[in-house]
Design the sequence.
């Protein structure tokens, strides 16, 4: 749903061979709609919860790779926004993303004779500057930015490149109503939506542009219908 569904529709306008969708919730109507958009593309669905152990993810990926042989791009897009659910927010938004990425390295890492691949992680503008009333959610998105930047720097070793797409406030069900941490601001959703936002389609169009640009280490901001590369300021370097 939301950005994910609209982005899938935009992808199907391109010359794809396969589109594999992994989601916790099965939506046959949406899958049928996607299949009808471009009959030349093989659209398949697998049930998947990103909070499962890495071993389960690896088992599912083994099945998918066994059928398709080659997968070029992994888009990690699962996310929730509810600072009452602290453990689950971290599990879905960050741990699940890390575990799914770790699992696919088994098939992509050039040190294991893999072909390499491309990781596209969905972050958020809150990964740059937090919505301070939802520090748990914002913290997970900052972690996604940092993790992905590390993946990009590891590309010469692994053969796997990575970048983030970071949407601004987009009019999806995710932001219509959500809980702030310790209820510090019960009206946070209402106040947030009083400011300019973007529709999911505008975000999806720029999302696919970022995929096509395919720049390792890029930090893309997708806000108010625009696509902008963010330059991250370095304040410290490990030196190694």
Sequence:
């Amino acid at each position: 749903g939301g950005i994910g569904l609209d982005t899938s529709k935009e992808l199907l306008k391109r010359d794809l061979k396969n589109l594999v969708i992994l989601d916790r919730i099965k939506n046959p109507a949406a899958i049928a709609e996607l299949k009808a958009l471009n009959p030349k593309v093989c659209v398949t669905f697998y049930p998947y919860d990103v909070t499962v152990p890495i071993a389960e993810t690896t088992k599912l990926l083994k099945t998918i790779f066994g059928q398709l042989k080659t997968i070029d791009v992994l888009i990690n897009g699962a996310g929730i926004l509810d600072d009452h659910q602290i453990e689950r927010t971290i599990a879905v938004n960050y741990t699940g993303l890390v575990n799914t990425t770790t699992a696919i390295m088994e098939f992509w890492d050039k040190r294991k004779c893999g072909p390499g691949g491309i990781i596209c992680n969905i972050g958020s503008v809150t990964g740059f500057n937090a919505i301070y009333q939802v520090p748990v959610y914002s913290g997970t998105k900052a972690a996604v930015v940092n993790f992905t930047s590390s993946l990009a720097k590891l590309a010469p070793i692994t053969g796997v490149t990575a970048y983030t797409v970071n949407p601004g406030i987009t009019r999806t069900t995710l932001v219509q109503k959500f809980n702030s941490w310790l209820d510090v601001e019960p009206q946070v959703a209402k106040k947030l939506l009083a400011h300019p936002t973007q529709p999911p389609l505008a975000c999806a169009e720029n999302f696919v542009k970022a995929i096509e640009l395919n720049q390792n280490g890029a930090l893309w901001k997708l806000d108010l219908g625009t696509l902008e590369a963010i330059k991250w300021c370095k304040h410290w370097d490990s030196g190694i």
User: Anything to note?
Assistant: The chain has one domain: 2-230. The longest strand covers residues 160-167. Residues 26 and 47 are 7 Å apart (CA to CA).
